[in-house]
Amino acid sequence: MSETATLPTANSAELECPQCQHRITYYDVENSTHYACPQCHSYFEYEDPKPPRLLGKFQAGPEFQPQLIPLGATGLMPDGQTYRVVGYSARAEAASRAYHWGEYVLFCPPATYAQLAVYDFHWSFIRPTKQLYKVQFPTSRSAYVAVGDQDYRIYNKYSPVVWYAVGEFDYDIREDEKLEVTEHIDPPYMLVEEKAKGDAHASWYLAEYMTRKQVATAFNLPAGTLPPPNGTGAIEPAPGEDTWQPLLYISFGLALVAIVLQILLSSVYSPNTLLQYNFATEQNLAAKDVLGQSQVLVTPSFTVNGPTALYFDMHVGLDNQWLELPVSMVNEQTGQGYEFTKTFEYYHGYEGGESWSEGSMNADATLAQVPAGRYHLNLYPQSENTTSLSGQLSVTEHPVLQSNLLLLIALLLVFPVLQFIRRGYHESSRWTNSDYGPQENDNE
Amino acid sequence: METLLAFARRHWFYSLLVLLGFGTFIWANLTGRRLLGDDNESTENINGTRSHSGGRSGHGVYYHK
Predict the structure, then answer these.
(1) Can you give the pLDDT at residue B58?
(2) For residues A205 and A114, what is the distance between their CA atoms, to the nearest angstrom?
(3) Is B21 in contact with A341 (Cβ distance < 8 A)?
(4) Contact residues, chain A, for B17 at CB < 8 Å
(5) Which range of residues forms the domain containing residue B5?
(6) pTM
(7) pLDDT of residue A440
(8) Residues of A whose CB is below 8 A from B55
Protein backbone atom coordinates (compact mmCIF):
# COMPACT_ATOMS: atom_id res chain seq x y z
CA MET A 1 0.00 0.00 0.00
CA SER A 2 1.44 3.29 -1.07
CA GLU A 3 2.08 6.29 1.09
CA THR A 4 -0.80 8.71 0.92
CA ALA A 5 0.23 12.18 -0.20
CA THR A 6 -1.93 15.10 0.64
CA LEU A 7 -1.56 18.44 -0.99
CA PRO A 8 -3.68 20.74 1.06
CA THR A 9 -4.96 23.85 -0.61
CA ALA A 10 -7.39 26.45 0.67
CA ASN A 11 -10.43 24.18 0.07
CA SER A 12 -9.16 20.82 -0.97
CA ALA A 13 -6.53 18.19 -0.58
CA GLU A 14 -5.33 15.20 -2.54
CA LEU A 15 -4.68 11.62 -1.67
CA GLU A 16 -3.58 8.56 -3.56
CA CYS A 17 -5.75 5.57 -4.20
CA PRO A 18 -4.14 2.69 -2.27
CA GLN A 19 -4.99 0.35 -5.14
CA CYS A 20 -4.02 2.21 -8.33
CA GLN A 21 -2.23 5.28 -6.98
CA HIS A 22 -4.58 7.56 -8.85
CA ARG A 23 -4.52 10.96 -7.20
CA ILE A 24 -7.89 11.86 -5.79
CA THR A 25 -8.89 15.41 -4.92
CA TYR A 26 -11.14 15.70 -1.93
CA TYR A 27 -12.78 18.78 -0.44
CA ASP A 28 -14.04 18.10 3.07
CA VAL A 29 -10.59 17.73 4.51
CA GLU A 30 -11.85 17.75 8.08
CA ASN A 31 -14.67 15.23 7.87
CA SER A 32 -14.33 12.93 4.86
CA THR A 33 -13.41 9.39 5.90
CA HIS A 34 -14.33 7.12 3.01
CA TYR A 35 -13.35 7.36 -0.64
CA ALA A 36 -14.14 5.60 -3.90
CA CYS A 37 -11.52 5.85 -6.63
CA PRO A 38 -12.83 7.14 -9.98
CA GLN A 39 -10.03 5.23 -11.72
CA CYS A 40 -10.18 1.69 -10.35
CA HIS A 41 -13.45 2.00 -8.36
CA SER A 42 -11.80 0.76 -5.16
CA TYR A 43 -13.47 1.78 -1.96
CA PHE A 44 -11.22 2.65 0.97
CA GLU A 45 -11.15 4.36 4.31
CA TYR A 46 -8.66 7.07 5.19
CA GLU A 47 -8.47 9.03 8.42
CA ASP A 48 -5.29 10.96 8.93
CA PRO A 49 -2.84 9.93 10.36
CA LYS A 50 -3.81 6.28 9.81
CA PRO A 51 -2.85 4.79 6.45
CA PRO A 52 -5.62 4.15 3.93
CA ARG A 53 -7.46 0.89 4.38
CA LEU A 54 -8.83 -0.84 1.33
CA LEU A 55 -12.43 -1.96 1.83
CA GLY A 56 -13.03 -3.58 -1.53
CA LYS A 57 -15.00 -2.73 -4.62
CA PHE A 58 -18.66 -2.13 -5.33
CA GLN A 59 -20.64 -4.69 -7.30
CA ALA A 60 -21.29 -2.59 -10.38
CA GLY A 61 -19.39 -0.20 -12.58
CA PRO A 62 -20.18 3.37 -13.62
CA GLU A 63 -22.54 2.13 -16.33
CA PHE A 64 -25.01 0.88 -13.72
CA GLN A 65 -26.36 4.41 -13.25
CA PRO A 66 -24.26 6.85 -15.30
CA GLN A 67 -22.99 9.91 -13.50
CA LEU A 68 -24.19 13.08 -15.22
CA ILE A 69 -22.56 15.79 -13.09
CA PRO A 70 -18.80 15.53 -12.61
CA LEU A 71 -17.08 15.50 -9.23
CA GLY A 72 -15.88 18.96 -8.29
CA ALA A 73 -18.70 20.76 -10.13
CA THR A 74 -20.26 23.57 -8.14
CA GLY A 75 -23.84 24.70 -8.27
CA LEU A 76 -26.17 27.21 -6.68
CA MET A 77 -28.97 25.17 -5.19
CA PRO A 78 -32.58 26.16 -4.30
CA ASP A 79 -31.63 26.89 -0.67
CA GLY A 80 -29.40 29.72 -1.94
CA GLN A 81 -26.13 28.00 -1.04
CA THR A 82 -23.37 26.97 -3.39
CA TYR A 83 -22.49 23.31 -3.14
CA ARG A 84 -19.75 21.23 -4.67
CA VAL A 85 -20.33 17.70 -5.91
CA VAL A 86 -17.89 15.63 -3.84
CA GLY A 87 -19.33 12.16 -4.15
CA TYR A 88 -21.68 10.04 -6.19
CA SER A 89 -23.29 6.70 -5.55
CA ALA A 90 -25.52 4.51 -7.66
CA ARG A 91 -28.13 2.70 -5.65
CA ALA A 92 -31.03 0.35 -6.09
CA GLU A 93 -33.79 -1.00 -3.95
CA ALA A 94 -32.82 -4.21 -2.16
CA ALA A 95 -36.01 -5.82 -3.43
CA SER A 96 -35.18 -5.18 -7.08
CA ARG A 97 -32.16 -3.66 -8.76
CA ALA A 98 -34.50 -2.55 -11.55
CA TYR A 99 -35.40 0.39 -9.32
CA HIS A 100 -32.09 2.23 -9.30
CA TRP A 101 -31.10 5.84 -8.93
CA GLY A 102 -28.11 8.11 -8.45
CA GLU A 103 -27.22 10.22 -5.44
CA TYR A 104 -24.80 13.13 -5.63
CA VAL A 105 -23.20 14.21 -2.36
CA LEU A 106 -23.19 17.99 -2.20
CA PHE A 107 -20.83 19.75 0.16
CA CYS A 108 -20.90 23.39 1.23
CA PRO A 109 -17.98 24.34 3.49
CA PRO A 110 -17.45 24.25 6.31
CA ALA A 111 -19.76 21.33 7.09
CA THR A 112 -23.11 21.51 5.28
CA TYR A 113 -24.17 18.48 3.32
CA ALA A 114 -27.05 17.91 0.94
CA GLN A 115 -27.89 15.43 -1.78
CA LEU A 116 -29.07 15.59 -5.32
CA ALA A 117 -30.92 12.44 -6.28
CA VAL A 118 -31.88 11.42 -9.79
CA TYR A 119 -34.38 8.69 -10.66
CA ASP A 120 -35.47 8.22 -14.25
CA PHE A 121 -33.88 11.63 -14.85
CA HIS A 122 -36.20 13.25 -12.33
CA TRP A 123 -34.13 15.35 -9.95
CA SER A 124 -34.66 16.17 -6.30
CA PHE A 125 -32.59 18.27 -3.94
CA ILE A 126 -32.49 16.68 -0.49
CA ARG A 127 -31.45 18.31 2.78
CA PRO A 128 -31.44 16.92 6.29
CA THR A 129 -33.97 18.48 8.59
CA LYS A 130 -33.71 18.58 12.34
CA GLN A 131 -37.44 18.61 12.71
CA LEU A 132 -39.02 15.36 13.85
CA TYR A 133 -42.24 14.32 12.23
CA LYS A 134 -44.95 12.02 13.38
CA VAL A 135 -46.30 9.47 10.94
CA GLN A 136 -50.05 8.96 11.23
CA PHE A 137 -51.24 5.36 10.87
CA PRO A 138 -47.64 4.25 10.26
CA THR A 139 -48.48 0.59 9.71
CA SER A 140 -51.30 1.21 7.27
CA ARG A 141 -51.27 1.84 3.55
CA SER A 142 -52.76 5.26 4.27
CA ALA A 143 -49.83 6.45 6.39
CA TYR A 144 -49.13 10.14 6.13
CA VAL A 145 -47.22 12.94 7.78
CA ALA A 146 -49.20 16.08 8.62
CA VAL A 147 -47.21 19.29 8.37
CA GLY A 148 -49.40 22.34 8.87
CA ASP A 149 -52.19 22.12 6.32
CA GLN A 150 -50.25 19.75 4.11
CA ASP A 151 -50.33 15.96 4.22
CA TYR A 152 -47.36 14.00 2.96
CA ARG A 153 -48.77 10.66 1.80
CA ILE A 154 -46.68 7.52 1.93
CA TYR A 155 -45.30 6.75 -1.52
CA ASN A 156 -42.54 4.20 -1.17
CA LYS A 157 -40.70 2.08 1.37
CA TYR A 158 -37.44 0.29 0.66
CA SER A 159 -33.92 -0.55 1.76
CA PRO A 160 -31.12 0.71 -0.48
CA VAL A 161 -28.17 -1.23 -1.84
CA VAL A 162 -25.09 0.70 -2.95
CA TRP A 163 -23.97 -0.71 -6.30
CA TYR A 164 -21.35 1.81 -7.23
CA ALA A 165 -19.71 4.91 -5.80
CA VAL A 166 -17.06 7.47 -6.58
CA GLY A 167 -15.67 10.44 -4.63
CA GLU A 168 -15.55 11.18 -0.93
CA PHE A 169 -17.95 10.52 1.91
CA ASP A 170 -17.99 11.50 5.57
CA TYR A 171 -19.23 8.04 6.61
CA ASP A 172 -19.20 4.48 5.36
CA ILE A 173 -21.97 4.58 2.78
CA ARG A 174 -22.33 0.80 2.97
CA GLU A 175 -24.03 1.43 6.33
CA ASP A 176 -26.96 2.85 4.36
CA GLU A 177 -27.87 -0.69 3.39
CA LYS A 178 -29.01 -1.24 6.97
CA LEU A 179 -31.58 1.53 6.64
CA GLU A 180 -35.26 1.31 5.98
CA VAL A 181 -36.31 4.34 3.99
CA THR A 182 -39.88 5.60 3.78
CA GLU A 183 -40.87 8.35 1.37
CA HIS A 184 -43.88 10.59 1.96
CA ILE A 185 -44.85 12.99 -0.78
CA ASP A 186 -46.64 16.27 -1.19
CA PRO A 187 -45.41 17.39 -4.63
CA PRO A 188 -43.12 19.14 -5.22
CA TYR A 189 -41.84 18.10 -1.79
CA MET A 190 -41.00 14.80 -0.16
CA LEU A 191 -40.25 13.89 3.42
CA VAL A 192 -37.82 11.01 3.68
CA GLU A 193 -37.66 8.99 6.85
CA GLU A 194 -34.54 6.93 7.40
CA LYS A 195 -34.48 4.43 10.18
CA ALA A 196 -32.01 1.69 10.99
CA LYS A 197 -33.78 -1.65 11.00
CA GLY A 198 -35.05 -2.33 14.48
CA ASP A 199 -34.23 1.20 15.63
CA ALA A 200 -36.98 3.54 16.77
CA HIS A 201 -34.98 6.69 16.07
CA ALA A 202 -35.53 8.18 12.63
CA SER A 203 -33.64 10.80 10.63
CA TRP A 204 -35.68 13.05 8.41
CA TYR A 205 -34.83 14.68 5.09
CA LEU A 206 -36.77 17.17 3.01
CA ALA A 207 -36.59 16.74 -0.76
CA GLU A 208 -37.62 19.29 -3.34
CA TYR A 209 -38.20 18.62 -7.03
CA MET A 210 -35.87 20.26 -9.53
CA THR A 211 -36.37 20.34 -13.26
CA ARG A 212 -33.45 19.29 -15.44
CA LYS A 213 -33.25 22.89 -16.63
CA GLN A 214 -32.86 24.06 -13.03
CA VAL A 215 -30.14 21.47 -12.43
CA ALA A 216 -28.33 22.32 -15.66
CA THR A 217 -28.50 26.03 -14.84
CA ALA A 218 -27.35 25.47 -11.26
CA PHE A 219 -24.25 23.54 -12.37
CA ASN A 220 -23.73 25.51 -15.58
CA LEU A 221 -24.01 22.34 -17.65
CA PRO A 222 -24.18 22.56 -21.45
CA ALA A 223 -27.63 22.17 -22.97
CA GLY A 224 -28.44 18.54 -23.66
CA THR A 225 -26.18 17.18 -20.93
CA LEU A 226 -29.14 16.05 -18.89
CA PRO A 227 -31.60 13.74 -20.68
CA PRO A 228 -35.33 14.42 -20.49
CA PRO A 229 -37.15 12.68 -17.63
CA ASN A 230 -38.91 9.36 -18.13
CA GLY A 231 -42.54 9.08 -17.07
CA THR A 232 -43.88 10.94 -14.09
CA GLY A 233 -41.65 11.69 -11.13
CA ALA A 234 -42.71 10.96 -7.55
CA ILE A 235 -42.75 14.65 -6.68
CA GLU A 236 -42.87 16.15 -10.14
CA PRO A 237 -45.37 19.01 -10.05
CA ALA A 238 -48.49 18.50 -12.13
CA PRO A 239 -48.74 20.49 -15.40
CA GLY A 240 -49.53 24.14 -14.72
CA GLU A 241 -49.13 23.64 -10.96
CA ASP A 242 -48.03 27.20 -10.29
CA THR A 243 -50.90 28.75 -12.25
CA TRP A 244 -53.66 26.24 -11.52
CA GLN A 245 -55.32 28.21 -8.73
CA PRO A 246 -55.09 31.56 -10.60
CA LEU A 247 -56.46 29.82 -13.70
CA LEU A 248 -59.51 28.61 -11.76
CA TYR A 249 -60.16 32.04 -10.26
CA ILE A 250 -59.62 33.83 -13.57
CA SER A 251 -61.82 31.42 -15.54
CA PHE A 252 -64.59 31.73 -12.95
CA GLY A 253 -64.22 35.53 -13.00
CA LEU A 254 -64.35 35.61 -16.81
CA ALA A 255 -67.50 33.46 -16.80
CA LEU A 256 -69.10 36.00 -14.44
CA VAL A 257 -67.96 38.84 -16.70
CA ALA A 258 -69.60 37.07 -19.65
CA ILE A 259 -72.89 36.78 -17.75
CA VAL A 260 -72.76 40.45 -16.71
CA LEU A 261 -71.95 41.42 -20.31
CA GLN A 262 -74.95 39.44 -21.55
CA ILE A 263 -77.18 41.28 -19.08
CA LEU A 264 -75.73 44.64 -20.16
CA LEU A 265 -76.20 43.87 -23.84
CA SER A 266 -79.76 42.73 -23.15
CA SER A 267 -80.46 46.03 -21.44
CA VAL A 268 -79.08 48.01 -24.41
CA TYR A 269 -81.30 46.04 -26.81
CA SER A 270 -84.07 44.71 -24.63
CA PRO A 271 -86.39 42.02 -26.03
CA ASN A 272 -89.39 43.56 -27.78
CA THR A 273 -92.51 41.69 -28.88
CA LEU A 274 -93.39 42.61 -32.47
CA LEU A 275 -96.33 40.32 -33.11
CA GLN A 276 -98.90 38.36 -31.12
CA TYR A 277 -100.95 36.32 -33.56
CA ASN A 278 -103.80 33.92 -32.81
CA PHE A 279 -104.90 31.64 -35.60
CA ALA A 280 -107.19 28.76 -36.46
CA THR A 281 -106.52 26.37 -39.31
CA GLU A 282 -109.16 25.86 -41.98
CA GLN A 283 -109.25 23.09 -44.61
CA ASN A 284 -108.20 24.39 -48.02
CA LEU A 285 -111.20 23.59 -50.16
CA ALA A 286 -109.15 24.03 -53.32
CA ALA A 287 -106.91 21.16 -52.25
CA LYS A 288 -109.52 18.51 -51.53
CA ASP A 289 -107.20 15.72 -52.58
CA VAL A 290 -104.70 16.72 -49.88
CA LEU A 291 -106.34 15.85 -46.56
CA GLY A 292 -105.45 18.29 -43.80
CA GLN A 293 -103.99 20.91 -46.12
CA SER A 294 -105.16 24.19 -44.57
CA GLN A 295 -105.55 27.56 -46.15
CA VAL A 296 -102.57 29.88 -46.07
CA LEU A 297 -102.61 32.22 -43.07
CA VAL A 298 -101.13 35.70 -43.49
CA THR A 299 -100.24 37.69 -40.39
CA PRO A 300 -100.39 41.46 -39.99
CA SER A 301 -97.23 43.34 -40.89
CA PHE A 302 -94.68 44.25 -38.24
CA THR A 303 -91.55 46.40 -38.22
CA VAL A 304 -88.19 44.92 -37.32
CA ASN A 305 -85.52 47.21 -35.89
CA GLY A 306 -82.58 45.24 -37.21
CA PRO A 307 -80.17 43.89 -37.59
CA THR A 308 -81.47 41.54 -34.96
CA ALA A 309 -82.34 37.98 -34.22
CA LEU A 310 -86.04 37.13 -34.10
CA TYR A 311 -87.47 34.63 -31.70
CA PHE A 312 -90.67 32.78 -32.62
CA ASP A 313 -92.71 31.17 -29.87
CA MET A 314 -95.52 28.91 -31.05
CA HIS A 315 -98.32 26.92 -29.46
CA VAL A 316 -100.94 24.77 -31.15
CA GLY A 317 -103.84 23.06 -29.38
CA LEU A 318 -103.54 19.37 -30.30
CA ASP A 319 -105.35 16.27 -29.18
CA ASN A 320 -103.80 13.02 -30.34
CA GLN A 321 -102.70 14.43 -33.66
CA TRP A 322 -99.91 16.25 -35.42
CA LEU A 323 -99.49 19.51 -37.25
CA GLU A 324 -96.75 20.59 -39.57
CA LEU A 325 -96.30 24.34 -39.74
CA PRO A 326 -94.06 25.84 -42.43
CA VAL A 327 -93.52 29.54 -41.72
CA SER A 328 -92.33 32.00 -44.32
CA MET A 329 -91.29 35.52 -43.32
CA VAL A 330 -91.18 38.05 -46.13
CA ASN A 331 -89.58 41.49 -46.19
CA GLU A 332 -92.23 43.65 -47.79
CA GLN A 333 -89.70 46.15 -49.17
CA THR A 334 -87.04 43.84 -50.58
CA GLY A 335 -88.93 40.58 -50.95
CA GLN A 336 -86.22 38.77 -49.02
CA GLY A 337 -87.65 35.64 -47.46
CA TYR A 338 -86.91 33.45 -44.46
CA GLU A 339 -88.36 30.02 -43.90
CA PHE A 340 -88.55 27.42 -41.24
CA THR A 341 -90.81 24.50 -40.51
CA LYS A 342 -91.88 23.21 -37.14
CA THR A 343 -93.73 20.02 -36.45
CA PHE A 344 -96.04 19.62 -33.48
CA GLU A 345 -97.35 16.32 -32.23
CA TYR A 346 -99.05 15.49 -29.02
CA TYR A 347 -100.51 12.12 -28.03
CA HIS A 348 -101.87 10.98 -24.73
CA GLY A 349 -103.90 8.14 -23.31
CA TYR A 350 -104.50 5.74 -20.52
CA GLU A 351 -102.94 2.32 -20.63
CA GLY A 352 -102.17 -0.38 -18.08
CA GLY A 353 -103.62 1.71 -15.29
CA GLU A 354 -101.34 4.65 -16.06
CA SER A 355 -101.76 7.88 -17.96
CA TRP A 356 -99.21 8.62 -20.63
CA SER A 357 -98.45 11.45 -22.97
CA GLU A 358 -95.76 12.22 -25.49
CA GLY A 359 -94.78 15.06 -27.76
CA SER A 360 -95.45 18.73 -27.22
CA MET A 361 -97.87 21.40 -28.31
CA ASN A 362 -95.12 24.05 -28.18
CA ALA A 363 -92.21 24.91 -30.45
CA ASP A 364 -89.83 27.77 -30.94
CA ALA A 365 -87.49 29.00 -33.63
CA THR A 366 -84.86 31.67 -34.09
CA LEU A 367 -83.93 33.61 -37.19
CA ALA A 368 -80.64 35.51 -37.01
CA GLN A 369 -79.29 38.64 -38.68
CA VAL A 370 -82.65 39.89 -39.83
CA PRO A 371 -82.24 43.36 -41.38
CA ALA A 372 -84.48 46.27 -40.43
CA GLY A 373 -87.70 46.49 -42.41
CA ARG A 374 -91.35 45.68 -42.60
CA TYR A 375 -92.27 42.01 -42.61
CA HIS A 376 -95.22 39.67 -42.47
CA LEU A 377 -95.53 35.92 -42.03
CA ASN A 378 -97.19 33.32 -44.22
CA LEU A 379 -98.19 30.13 -42.45
CA TYR A 380 -98.89 26.90 -44.37
CA PRO A 381 -100.37 24.52 -41.77
CA GLN A 382 -100.98 20.88 -42.60
CA SER A 383 -102.39 18.27 -40.28
CA GLU A 384 -103.59 14.70 -40.53
CA ASN A 385 -107.29 15.56 -40.86
CA THR A 386 -109.64 18.42 -41.53
CA THR A 387 -110.15 19.33 -37.86
CA SER A 388 -109.62 23.01 -37.26
CA LEU A 389 -106.77 23.70 -34.84
CA SER A 390 -106.16 26.91 -32.97
CA GLY A 391 -102.76 28.30 -32.08
CA GLN A 392 -100.75 31.29 -31.06
CA LEU A 393 -97.54 32.68 -32.45
CA SER A 394 -95.41 35.53 -31.13
CA VAL A 395 -92.36 37.22 -32.65
CA THR A 396 -89.77 38.95 -30.43
CA GLU A 397 -86.82 41.02 -31.61
CA HIS A 398 -83.51 41.30 -29.71
CA PRO A 399 -84.08 38.07 -27.80
CA VAL A 400 -81.48 36.92 -25.30
CA LEU A 401 -79.28 34.56 -27.32
CA GLN A 402 -78.39 32.19 -24.53
CA SER A 403 -76.54 29.86 -26.88
CA ASN A 404 -73.98 32.63 -27.55
CA LEU A 405 -73.37 32.97 -23.82
CA LEU A 406 -73.11 29.21 -23.35
CA LEU A 407 -70.69 28.99 -26.26
CA LEU A 408 -68.49 31.71 -24.74
CA ILE A 409 -68.51 30.05 -21.33
CA ALA A 410 -67.65 26.71 -22.96
CA LEU A 411 -64.75 28.41 -24.72
CA LEU A 412 -63.56 29.91 -21.44
CA LEU A 413 -63.67 26.46 -19.85
CA VAL A 414 -61.72 24.65 -22.56
CA PHE A 415 -58.30 25.42 -21.13
CA PRO A 416 -59.15 24.79 -17.45
CA VAL A 417 -60.83 21.51 -18.36
CA LEU A 418 -57.84 20.51 -20.47
CA GLN A 419 -55.51 21.32 -17.60
CA PHE A 420 -57.74 19.42 -15.19
CA ILE A 421 -57.56 16.32 -17.39
CA ARG A 422 -53.78 16.65 -17.81
CA ARG A 423 -53.33 17.05 -14.07
CA GLY A 424 -55.55 14.07 -13.36
CA TYR A 425 -53.59 11.94 -15.79
CA HIS A 426 -50.33 13.17 -14.29
CA GLU A 427 -51.48 12.29 -10.77
CA SER A 428 -52.71 8.89 -11.86
CA SER A 429 -49.41 8.25 -13.64
CA ARG A 430 -47.47 9.33 -10.55
CA TRP A 431 -49.18 6.76 -8.36
CA THR A 432 -48.79 3.89 -10.81
CA ASN A 433 -45.13 3.91 -9.74
CA SER A 434 -46.08 3.45 -6.10
CA ASP A 435 -47.24 0.49 -4.07
CA TYR A 436 -49.43 2.86 -2.09
CA GLY A 437 -51.49 4.47 -4.85
CA PRO A 438 -55.26 4.41 -5.25
CA GLN A 439 -54.88 1.84 -8.02
CA GLU A 440 -53.37 -0.56 -5.52
CA ASN A 441 -56.32 0.00 -3.19
CA ASP A 442 -58.68 -0.86 -6.03
CA ASN A 443 -56.88 -4.14 -6.61
CA GLU A 444 -57.29 -5.23 -3.03
CA MET B 1 -53.25 43.45 -11.75
CA GLU B 2 -49.59 42.51 -11.91
CA THR B 3 -50.48 38.89 -11.21
CA LEU B 4 -53.11 39.05 -13.93
CA LEU B 5 -50.62 40.42 -16.46
CA ALA B 6 -48.05 37.81 -15.47
CA PHE B 7 -50.69 35.13 -15.94
CA ALA B 8 -51.68 36.58 -19.33
CA ARG B 9 -48.06 36.58 -20.47
CA ARG B 10 -47.52 33.01 -19.29
CA HIS B 11 -50.71 31.73 -20.95
CA TRP B 12 -50.76 34.07 -23.94
CA PHE B 13 -52.68 31.56 -26.07
CA TYR B 14 -55.46 31.36 -23.49
CA SER B 15 -55.49 35.17 -23.19
CA LEU B 16 -55.78 35.44 -26.97
CA LEU B 17 -58.60 32.89 -26.98
CA VAL B 18 -60.42 34.83 -24.26
CA LEU B 19 -60.08 38.12 -26.17
CA LEU B 20 -61.28 36.51 -29.40
CA GLY B 21 -64.16 34.85 -27.55
CA PHE B 22 -65.36 38.05 -25.91
CA GLY B 23 -64.92 40.03 -29.14
CA THR B 24 -66.95 37.51 -31.11
CA PHE B 25 -69.58 37.34 -28.38
CA ILE B 26 -70.11 41.13 -28.33
CA TRP B 27 -70.10 41.38 -32.14
CA ALA B 28 -72.60 38.50 -32.45
CA ASN B 29 -74.94 39.98 -29.87
CA LEU B 30 -74.85 43.46 -31.36
CA THR B 31 -75.56 42.17 -34.88
CA GLY B 32 -78.20 39.63 -33.88
CA ARG B 33 -76.15 36.58 -34.85
CA ARG B 34 -76.58 33.23 -33.24
CA LEU B 35 -73.18 31.56 -33.27
CA LEU B 36 -74.61 28.06 -33.35
CA GLY B 37 -76.71 28.93 -36.40
CA ASP B 38 -80.43 29.61 -36.72
CA ASP B 39 -83.56 27.88 -38.03
CA ASN B 40 -83.64 29.60 -41.41
CA GLU B 41 -84.14 27.04 -44.19
CA SER B 42 -84.47 29.52 -47.03
CA THR B 43 -81.93 29.33 -49.81
CA GLU B 44 -83.14 32.35 -51.71
CA ASN B 45 -81.02 35.38 -52.47
CA ILE B 46 -81.46 38.97 -51.37
CA ASN B 47 -83.61 39.76 -54.42
CA GLY B 48 -86.31 37.58 -53.06
CA THR B 49 -86.75 35.61 -56.28
CA ARG B 50 -88.17 32.66 -54.41
CA SER B 51 -91.12 32.59 -52.13
CA HIS B 52 -92.45 29.67 -50.16
CA SER B 53 -91.31 26.71 -52.17
CA GLY B 54 -93.35 23.99 -50.64
CA GLY B 55 -90.09 22.55 -49.47
CA ARG B 56 -91.57 21.13 -46.38
CA SER B 57 -90.01 18.02 -45.13
CA GLY B 58 -93.39 16.35 -45.18
CA HIS B 59 -94.86 14.43 -42.39
CA GLY B 60 -93.83 10.83 -42.49
CA VAL B 61 -95.13 7.98 -40.47
CA TYR B 62 -96.02 9.16 -37.00
CA TYR B 63 -95.80 6.85 -34.13
CA HIS B 64 -99.13 6.43 -32.48
CA LYS B 65 -99.71 4.31 -29.45
Answers:
(1) 44
(2) 9
(3) no
(4) 411, 414-415
(5) 1-34
(6) 0.76
(7) 57
(8) 326, 339
Nearest to B59 among A322, A338, A408 (CB): A322
ipTM confidence score: 0.74
Of B7, B29, B34, the CB nearest to A246: B7
Task: Report the alpha-carbon distance of residue B18 to residue A414 in Å, rounded.
Answer: 10
With respect to residue B16, please indicate whether it lies within any of the assigned structural domains: yes
Is B3 within a domain? Answer: yes
CB–CB contact A401 B4 (8 Å) = no
Q: Determine whether the interchain pair B44/A337 forms a contact, defined as Cβ–Cβ distance below 8 Å.
A: yes
Residue of A326, A336, A403 with shortest CB distance to B56? A326
The number of distinct structural domains making up chain B is 1
CATH number (2.40.50.220, 2.60.120.380, 3.30.365.10, 3.40.50.1820) of A272-399 reads 2.60.120.380
pLDDT, averaged across chain A: 91
Where are the CATH 2.60.120.380 domain residues in chain A? 272-399
Is residue A3 over pLDDT 70?
no
The answer to whether residue B29 sits within a structural domain is yes
